[in-house]
Each structure stands twice: as C-alpha cells, then as structure tokens.
C-alpha cells in the first residue's frame, strides 16, 4: 500500500466512525456541521487526488445526498415512493460497484486464508462505504448516548443465536467445513468487514429498506413480519453469486439482523450481529466466503 492509499483508507475509516460523533461547530455560524460530512469530504478529496474517484463519482455522491435530503423533507407519499426508488437504484449501484466514477484500489490479491478456502481479493470499496455512510446518516440515526448503545447491546442473545443458527445450518448442509484459521491479513479483513461491509449493508437493508417498510406498514396486521421478511429475502437475493445455499443462509441471517434492529430500535444491533456472523465465519469455517467443498 502506498502512503496516499494508507491515508485514504484511514480517512475513510474515520468517516465511518464519525457517524457516531456529535456535530462540529461551524466557523462564524451558529449552525453545526455533521462530523460524517467533514470526514467523508476529506476522504473523497484524497480519493480524487489518488485518482480513485473522478468528477463523475463525486456527482453520484452528491446525487445520493440530494435524494436522501429530498426524501426526508417531502410530505408527498407519491414523491417519497419515487425518491425511495431512486435512492434504492443509486445506492445499490454504488454497493455493487456499478456506479461510474469509482476506481476502488486493490488491497490484497489472491491471498489464500487456508488450503480449504478460495483465494481472496480485497479492495478498498470507496463507493460502497460512501453509500453506507450517507444512508446511515439519513436513515440509521446512529447512537449518540449511553442509553442508545445499551439498547443495542441488549440484543446480545440475537448476536449469539444468529451465528449459531446460520453457521450450524451451513455445516449441516455441507456448504462449509470446519477450518480454524487466523491468516496474516485477519485484522485487515475484520476491520474492513465491520466498517465497510457490515455498516454499508445494514444501512441499506435494515436502515433504509426495512425502516421505510416499517413506517409504511405501521399499524398493519403482520406489518413487522412483512417488513423483516421482505428485507431478509432481498438481502438473500443480494448474495445470488454464492448460489442457492448462500441465498438461503443469507436470508436466515437477514432475519436475525432484522429482529435485532427492530427490537432494539438501533441500527448498531444489526451491524454488530452481522459482524459477529461474518467474523466467526471467517475464523471458524471455510471462507471468508461460503464455498462448497468436495470430498
């Protein structure tokens, strides 16, 4: 990693962490500036200098911010539906690395975590992290008080049951096998997984999609079940690349993440549950991605 890339990675991580920091005072103004906006702005400035983000990429970022702000300010049901669809498309494109103007730097390539695991190639996913930061800022209401963090941590039973159920089913189905490992790049993988993968995916699925469905179905019979179920199925479909077993297991995991977010009212509960599943999967079984094994 070059010095510029190290600075970029550090600033992107700081931008994510700044979601949980209080707003910063503005110069010569009584208004306060969201810490995440300052952090993300600094990270994107370095990304432009490193040629990892172009002017087109910045335009995509501004478009997503504008759409989210318009959604929150709109009182029209139909306009909010249209804005929801637009946010969904733009954020999904960024998460899937289909949005133009982003050239994610390569961090590690063809690294084998063990003899049983597929090679790992890891990028600094600026587009996905940026989309997650924006969605979490607008729709996730990051915890800022001790009481809010305690509400999230009270979901520890879900954080235990979800990985046991998901990994247990994966093992029973033969999708993975036991493969205890701690490769040299474990800290890099875990940090990236927490601050980018888990944060961005939970911001999109639980913060944005499930949150909006719960709003729309409030007071409806089985509204909560429908909101969590639909979101979990979409989360499973997002793992289509892993085949049918991965879709089923991801849907199961999504139910756990959805329950954690709903019961606690905190997105942090879903992020921590998601991270627990991914971390244990990485350390205990063939991975970091679920792969079929042969005798």
Topology:
Layout: H1 3-17, E1 24-25, E2 32-33, H2 35-49, H3 55-73, H4 77-95, E3 106-111, E4 120-123, H5 126-140, H6 146-153, H7 156-172, H8 186-216, H9 223-237, H10 243-264, H11 267-284
Antiparallel strand pairs: 1-2, 3-4
Describe it for me?
Keywords: Hydrolase, Membrane, Metalloprotease, Protease, Transmembrane, Transmembrane helix. Residues 185-280 form the CAAX prenyl protease 2/Lysostaphin resistance protein A-like domain. InterPro entries: CAAX_protease (IPR052710), Rce1/LyrA-like_dom (IPR003675). One of its GO terms (molecular function) is endopeptidase activity. This protein is mainly alpha-helical and 295 residues long. It has one domain (3-284). Helix content is 66%, strand content 5%. It has eleven helices and four strands, in the order H-E-E-H-H-H-E-E-H-H-H-H-H-H-H. The chain has helices at residues 3-17, 35-49, 55-73, 77-95, 126-140, 146-153, 156-172, 186-216, 223-237, 243-264, 267-284; strands at 24-25, 32-33, 106-111, 120-123. The strands form two sheets. Strands 1-2 form a two-stranded antiparallel sheet. Helix 3 packs parallel to helix 5. It starts with a helix and ends in an 11-residue tail after the last helix. The relative contact order is 0.12.
């Amino acid at each position: 990693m070059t010095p510029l890339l190290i600075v970029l990675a550090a600033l992107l991580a700081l931008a994510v962490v700044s979601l949980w920091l209080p707003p910063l005072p503005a110069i010569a103004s009584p208004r306060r500036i969201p810490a995440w906006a300052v952090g993300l702005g600094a990270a994107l400035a370095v990304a432009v200098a490193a040629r990892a983000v172009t002017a087109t990429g910045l335009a995509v970022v501004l478009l997503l911010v504008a759409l989210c702000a318009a959604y929150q300010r709109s009182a029209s049901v139909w306009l909010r539906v249209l804005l929801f669809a637009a946010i969904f498309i733009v954020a999904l494109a960024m998460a899937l690395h289909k949005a133009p103007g982003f050239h994610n730097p390569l961090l590690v390539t063809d690294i084998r975590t063990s003899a049983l695991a597929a090679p790992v190639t890891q990028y600094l996913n600026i587009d996905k992290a940026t989309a997650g930061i924006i969605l979490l800022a607008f729709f996730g209401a990051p915890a800022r008080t001790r009481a809010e963090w305690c509400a999230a941590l009270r979901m520890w039973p879900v954080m235990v049951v979800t990985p046991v159920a998901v990994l247990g089913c994966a093992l029973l189905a033969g999708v993975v096998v036991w493969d205890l490992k701690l490769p040299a790049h474990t800290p890099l993988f875990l940090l990236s997984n927490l601050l980018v993968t888990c944060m961005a995916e939970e911001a999109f699925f639980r913060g944005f999609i499930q949150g909006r469905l719960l709003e729309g179905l409030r007071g409806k019979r089985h509204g909560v079940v429908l909101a969590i179920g639909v979101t979990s199925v979409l989360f499973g479909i997002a793992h289509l690349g892993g085949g049918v077993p991965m879709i089923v297991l991801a849907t199961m995991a999504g139910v756990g993440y959805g329950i954690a977010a709903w019961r606690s009212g905190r997105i942090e509960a879903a992020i921590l549950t998601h991270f627990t599943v991914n971390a244990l999967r990485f350390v205990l079984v063939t991975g970091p991605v679920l792969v079929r094994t042969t005798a």
